[in-house]
UniProtKB/TrEMBL annotation:
UniProt keyword annotations, A-Z: Dioxygenase, Iron, Metal-binding, Oxidoreductase
Cofactor field: L-ascorbate
PROSITE patterns given in the database record: FE2OG_OXY
Name of the protein in its database record: Non-heme dioxygenase N-terminal domain-containing protein
Xref: Pfam families: 2OG-FeII_Oxy, DIOX_N
Catalytic function, reaction form: salicylate + NADH + O2 + H(+) = 2,3-dihydroxybenzoate + NAD(+) + H2O
Signal peptide: none
The organism of origin for this protein: Artemisia annua
Keyword Nucleotide-binding annotated: no
Family: Belongs to the iron/ascorbate-dependent oxidoreductase family.
Swiss-Prot/TrEMBL GO biological process terms: defense response to oomycetes
Superkingdom assignment: Eukaryota
Boundaries of every Fe2OG dioxygenase domain copy: 188-288
PANTHER family noted in UniProt: OXOGLUTARATE/IRON-DEPENDENT DIOXYGENASE
Length: 338
């Protein structure tokens, strides 16, 4: 396929061939039930011990959870959602000025996941931005809509602060000092994907994003409150995560699985699409510093046993991750096991 965005304004009546998944690899939407016990954690309640206990339980049993009372002002969230919608409604020619399939670019509009590597495409367009340090990256962000840099800048700053607080609680939940994990991850980068899933003519035949885990440390996902689409793998079954009002979904990524010595699992998740309404999700990824050595602290290694993973840098991991397709059989972390 000559890859190009699907948010072109063209209304498809059938799914183009290059998006059709083999029969054995389809979403089976009718068999997916809603997860009615997703942990919802009041992270602003002020009781650190309770928060880290709830977060620890959620990380052990689910690999993801939602946070409320999170300190990211509602107005900042609403403006972020507005700017995301306004961006994808721009004329095609305007958006295509930012189009690239090169994953090393620090700002690009793209489609699917890794168009140059994958066999079947995904029903998703996305704008991917590097966000930290803000004064380094924000000058290269889109200047249309005119308020893009201001609204997105405020949002990524507030979300970074939330992410750091969550990482402190995760550290405490493992019995470590609160800044222990943050120190291992080093000066973390921050990326963002504004995902746009247009109305899909045949949602049973394709994915917005197939099942995957995130290659980074922690993901803070803002779901579309009106349109569901996120599903996670829980006890071997895909379950739908109903958007909770005013909440963020927090996912454990591959690097926290490594740093926790495998105690916390990077969660498998996917996005499905629908034939009724477009959906938007905004994912913020906290990524370890490129040259930090990602090894589990000695406190988490049982006497005499080997750490589950080899020592590696995030730069090594990230290169391996993007050299592959998203839904390859062998998980990327497997290459880094001892
Ligand atoms: O759209 C969603 O709910 C999931 C997005 C996601 O998994 C990602 O951006 O990596």
């Amino acid at each position: 396929m000559a890859a190009k965005v699907i948010s072109s304004g063209f209304r498809y009546t059938s799914l183009p061939e290059s998006y059709v998944r083999p029969v054995t690899d389809r979403p089976n939407l009718s068999q997916v039930s809603e997860c009615d016990d997703v942990p919802v954690i009041d992270i602003g309640c002020g009781d650190r011990e309770l928060i880290s206990k709830q977060i620890g339980d959620a990380c052990r049993h689910y690999g993801f959870f939602q946070v409320i009372n999170h300190g990211v002002p509602d107005e900042i969230v609403k403006k972020m959602q507005q700017v995301g919608r306004d961006f994808f409604e721009l004329p095609l020619e305007e958006k295509m000025k930012l189009y690239s399939e090169d994953p090393t670019k620090t700002m690009r509009l793209s489609t699917s996941f890794n168009v140059q590597k994958e066999k079947v495409h995904n029903w998703r367009d996305y704008l991917r931005l590097h966000c930290h340090p803000l004064d380094k990256y924000s000058p290269e962000w889109p200047s249309n809509p005119a308020y893009f840099k201001e609204y997105v800048g405020n949002y990524v700053t507030a979300v970074r602060d939330l992410g750091m607080r969550v990482l402190e609680s995760i550290s405490e939940s493992l019995g470590l000092q609160k800044d222990r994990i943050i120190k291992i991850l080093g000066d973390q980068g921050q990326h963002m994907a504004i995902n746009h899933y247009p109305v899909c003519p045949e949602p049973e035949l394709t994915f917005g994003l197939p099942g995957h885990t995130d290659p980074n440390a922690l993901t803070i996902l803002l779901q579309d409150t009106l349109v569901s689409g996120l599903q996670v793998l829980k006890d071997g079954k895909w379950v739908a995560v109903k958007p909770h009002p005013n909440a963020f979904v927090i996912n454990i990524g591959d690097q926290l699985e490594a740093v926790s010595n495998g105690q916390y699992k990077s969660v498998w998740h996917r996005a499905v699409v629908n034939s009724d309404k477009p959906r938007m999700s905004i994912a913020s990824f906290l990524c370890p510093c490129n040259d930090s050595i990602l090894s589990a602290p000695k406190e988490l290694i049982k006497d005499g046993s080997k750490p589950v993973f080899k020592d590696f840098t995030y730069a090594e991991y990230y290169k391996k991750f993007w050299s592959r397709n998203l839904d390859q059989e062998q998980h990327c972390l497997e290459f880094f096991k001892n």
